[in-house]
Amino acid sequence: MTHENARKNIAIRADSISASLGNGIAKQQVLHGVSLDIAAGQWTSIVGPNGAGKSTLLRCLAGVLPHSGTVHLLGKPMQSLPQRERARQLAWLGQNETSADDLTVWDVALLGRLPHQAWLAPASPADLAAVEQALRATQSWDWRCRPLGHLSGGERQRVLLARALAVQTQVLLMDEPLANLDPPHQADWLDVVRALVAQGTTVVSVLHEISMALHADQVVVMAQGRITHHGGSNDASTHAALVDVFDHRIAIHAIEGQWVALPKTRPSREDRNGCSA
């Protein structure tokens, strides 16, 4: 593969990313020189224990958090891209995102079309079609006239996902997109991601649900602000890295054709020394 072809097969390239959170004496470095290539047209999941820096890394990749180092989006330095052009190429669904409760579901999803609209211009037929497609994909169409404030947490999350889908970008980043979703709607989300990847979209997600993350093409494992492993979800080395980063408190098994991560309890005192507590 030539250098040019290799470049085209990378949707996001991060080089030596370092980032801190907090201010003053509370400021703490969270990422330590992270470098990462995200393959184009694939789904990459970022996983790791609490405090590993997963969400911070994703925010850096999305260009919404100051950092040192460089990020290239579709072969171009992200910092050099005009904001509207960047918004047409990369959509972002952050953790615990909100929107005005008095907006209707339709209006919230329509916000995803702003990068494609001129200032104060009415929605075009393409905008309306994109919003309808996104609402139907997330099974939110039937609530399109309801205010966002009248929805449950899981329903709101599906509407916010619809807003991100309506942008119709080449790259979609999602931080904890399964929050508040019950298992059937987690499965629906998985179908949406697979459909996006099938049409060539690059998807990057931060997930706490390891079994769901193992459906991805690639898995990035993080600990203490660094990447400890990056490999295929089916690779034995990836499974070993996951078990290791979670202190051997999980076990990964193949069940009905898919990988499942099961929690392991700590040994009781009797298990450890043969004596009851």
UniProtKB/TrEMBL annotation:
One Pfam family named in its UniProt record: ABC_tran
Keywords tagged on the record: ATP-binding, Cell membrane, Hydrolase, Membrane, Nucleotide-binding, Translocase, Transport
Chain coiled-coil ranges: none
Domain ABC transporter: 12-249
Source species, domain of life: Bacteria
N-terminal signal peptide: none
Molecular-function annotations in GO: ATP binding; ATP hydrolysis activity
Entries under PROSITE patterns matching the protein: ABC_TRANSPORTER_1, ABC_TRANSPORTER_2
PANTHER family xrefs: HEMIN IMPORT ATP-BINDING PROTEIN HMUV (PTHR42794:SF1)
Stated role: Part of the ABC transporter complex HmuTUV involved in hemin import. Responsible for energy coupling to the transport system.
Sequence similarity: Belongs to the ABC transporter superfamily.
Name of the protein in its database record: ABC transporter domain-containing protein
Organism per entry: Curvibacter symbiont subsp. Hydra magnipapillata
